[in-house]
């Protein structure tokens, strides 16, 4: 799951890269790319963010000594240097040579780059195929996905103005509601196929591995739109499984399959406008608001420029987070939502720092599920629209009505399990003692 200080980490990495560029260190190091630590979903999200903001490819490294920057093109131009590529990501990060080697296929014929023998053998054995984009990227949040879709629309036919942008974006999204969402359906079918395979092999439940296998499952080359929608659907599916796993404590894949029935989706007929994989209308309106206000800052010669769009929508926020940290950025550049002092959104100022809305409860900071959404929610409230069906039949929980919190789901005996609100999703407490007191005060006598 994406951690609360995820944006702060991204900001620090981007700040580091900008310093390297400013000091001209990026042209001459004897290294290949940016190396990030570990193989979790968080790291994949960081890689996607860094690539979007810098244009420099990233890879996963097994230790923190390898945080370095350079691209293949610059390696080739620096012909006076010899570059020895290590088996990056194939140790503690847990990737196989067959997964990482294809990333270096363009380096095979570059004289001053020496690849590991295992990489050369893998590249030769598979005929240097294209690495599926979905294996290398991780879509996080609806704004990220919508901007990616807008970028692809702009590549196909230049976007003329903000009205044109939103019209084409809404038409693209509406197809999944009106005519069926083949990408979400594909994600669910992939889950079922993989879990059947895991069951046959007697494997224990491993949600992170499932996500990785989903992203690399399909061998066919998808169009850019298909890749973006499929990646988004994978992330949404895994997020729902992770949300459920906090109280379901999965020990077998059959139970996961049964629970996924609560997020139905059709591939060939209309879906409910608020089905699980739908896009929040407020988020689309936010994109419209950004484009209308910032049109002169995201265009060149009157046409939308993808790089400027990226910088305005995400770059200002990450730059400020890199300088001040997440909590201080929220204090400086955010306001309360009406009377809700615990929900923060960017201030309406001359240069808006377009960033996610945040829910703050003491030390807990949580990013809104739709990124820029303005409303009374937490990140898990949308999942609760579907998961409450499972909680109501879960023997470990009891449902009660509270005059203040509304409908609550409380653990019957095991107080290590989370407490849930029907309206707000998972509830947070400063410590276990506070949580136990809350449960005891609200449980039926």
Please provide a written account of the structure.
- Helix 4 (97-100) links the parallel strand 3 and strand 4.
- Among the domains are: 6-126, no CATH class; 395-442, no CATH class.
- Mean pLDDT is 75; it is low at 1-6, 24-43, 60-80, 127-140 and 373-377.
- Helix 1 (6-22) packs across helix 14 and helix 14 (306-324) packs across helix 15.
- The chain has helices at 6-22, 41-54, 72-77, 97-100, 117-125, 133-136, 142-156, 162-178, 182-201, 207-216, 224-248, 253-259, 281-294, 306-324, 326-333, 381-393, 432-442; strands spanning 34-37, 58-61, 83-84, 113-114, 299-300, 303-304, 334-337, 340-346, 358-361, 364-367, 397-402, 406-411, 420-421, 425-426.
- It starts with 5 loop residues before the first helix and ends with a helix.
- It has 17 helices and 14 strands.
- It is of the alpha+beta class and 445 residues long.
- The protein is globular, with a radius of gyration of 23 Å.
- 48% of the residues lie in helices and 11% in strands.
